[in-house]
Amino acid sequence: MSDLLERLRGRGWRMTAQRRVVAEVLDGDHVHLTADEVHARAVAKLPEISRATVYNTLGELVSLGEVLEVSTDRRAKRYDPNAHRAHQHLVCAQCGAIRDVHPSGDPLADLPDAERFGFVVSAVEVTYRGVYLCPLFAICKNVRIFL
Questions:
Q1: What are the tens digits of pLDDT across the range 46-87?
Q2: Quick check: 54 and 38 in contact, CB under 8 A?
Q3: Strands (DSSP E) along 5-144, which ranges?
Q4: What angle, 0 to 180 degrees and rounded to 10, lies between the N-to-C axes of helices 17-26 and 51-64?
């Protein structure tokens, strides 16, 4: 059973066939799918699942804190099941690929008191940007691909 499914069962979340399929689609490291990508993969496993069910399930998972909603630039929101391990994101400016990264150090501690301007900082989001030099790089330069 996937980590996400285990966490949801531990919470007593009612596990319908549709919810289970959405959770299975989101399972894995470096998973950052759009709602439409989740729907397409869910339909392959459960053809009768509706787009509305996928969107509603993703909304519930985000509300529960079991999935993160990730926005990079003006692209579609992506859903990250790695909600319980602190991490940042590395985003390819060419193709939009997103990878979880775990830099050493505490970004919250890296902000000097003088730069907090009286704020009590509760969270930090860091996004690293660059170009992913993958084997498909030549294609990525001319066509937007989302991994």
A1: 999 999 999 999 999 999 999 989 887 777 888 988 877 778
A2: yes
A3: 33-34, 68-70, 78-80, 88-92, 98-101, 127-130
A4: 70
- For residue 31, pLDDT beyond 70: yes
Q: Tell me the residue type at 132.
A: Y
Task: Report the pLDDT value the prediction gives residue 44, as an integer from 0 to 100.
Answer: 97
Give the strands of the sheet with 68-70, arranged side by side. 33-34, 78-80, 68-70
For residue 144, with 0-12 CB atoms within 10 Å meaning exposed, 13-18 middle and 19 or more buried, which class applies?
exposed
Taking residue 109's Cβ as centre, other Cβ atoms within 10 Å add up to 9
Nearest to 68, CA basis, from 55, 77, 58, 81: 81
Given a contact cutoff of 8 angstroms between Cβ atoms, the answer to whether 146 and 98 are in contact is: no
pTM of the predicted protein model: 0.72
Q: Specify the residue for token string 């691909």.
A: 145
Number of other CB atoms surrounding residue 52 within 10 Å: 9
Quick one: which of 132, 123, 124 has its CA closest to 90?
A: 132
88-92 and 127-130 strand pairing = parallel
